[in-house]
Design goal:
The structure is a single chain. This protein has ten helices and twelve strands. With 308 residues, it is of the alpha/beta class. Strands 3, 4, 5, 6, 7, 10, 11 and 12 form an eight-stranded mixed beta sheet that branches. The protein has a two-stranded antiparallel sheet with strand order 1-2. A two-stranded parallel ribbon has the order 8-9. The N and C termini lie far apart (49 Å).
Amino acid sequence: MTKTVSESTLDAIDVRHFYYFSVVAEENSLRRAAERLFMAQPPLSRQIKQLEERLGVALFVRHSRGLTLTDEGARVLAIVRPLLQMKDATYRRLREDIHPQEQRPRIGFTTAFEQGVFAGLERRLTEFFAGGLHIQREASTRLARDMRKGRLDAAFVALPLDAPGLLLRELPYAEPMLAALPTTWFAPGDAAPEAVSLKNFSHRPLFWFRRESNPGFFDYAKTRFARLGFTPQYLEEPTEHDVLLARIAAGEGMGLLPASFAAIRRDGVAFARLEDGHAFHLRLGLVVPQDKAPLAQTLTALASAMPL
């Protein structure tokens, strides 16, 4: 139910409220939006609730998989987008015309790895680009898409990746894939094994992504599955890792995740090393537009100077 909103109430809304709202709407997740905005989740949630109170409408429906825009929320988003686009264009013009030497590089980080692995690299990039930088966190294929549209200057992505038209370099960092298993798959009282063979889980449900999401990595994994004698029953993988882990904990299926995600402890989920894990790794790469080879050299040096 909506209520009448006075002019004074609208005047009290800061443009930042609309920006936070738009990011949450794009991510459909408070957690991912908070990471993208470099803020904690509770204050972001308070900002959204405050905006809802001042507008007198519910902007989102909250559920186990994240957030979904209400009809009112979709209308508000359509109304405020031109304002946010104008704000971005104004700030961009001010930077370009008044301080052209202080352009902030726009750099993407893949969400295929647990984000803590990039902490050291982010610090080095921040120190190197003293004028600041803009960071975007997305799936590797989305980062490549945004780069082709001119929205990013460079991106650290998961390999293998199809990146036609872009300059791609492999970096000296890789993680073995781990099996994320429901503890309900083991007998009561039995500890989950430290290492497993994938072929022993053939015909079991596996959460996995659609090929169109990342054809390069999908084909890479399919080849290795065949070599290992692993023929799972595929379930569509949730886009949010916290939702994926929740569904694994519920016993719906297993997952395969890079080793860095083992740092996320979840009741009902056991991480196990693959006995044949040497054949299945996720590698880190750097992609830049073809005309930004010097930037690729700089970023490669920064990424290779010390462990991530």
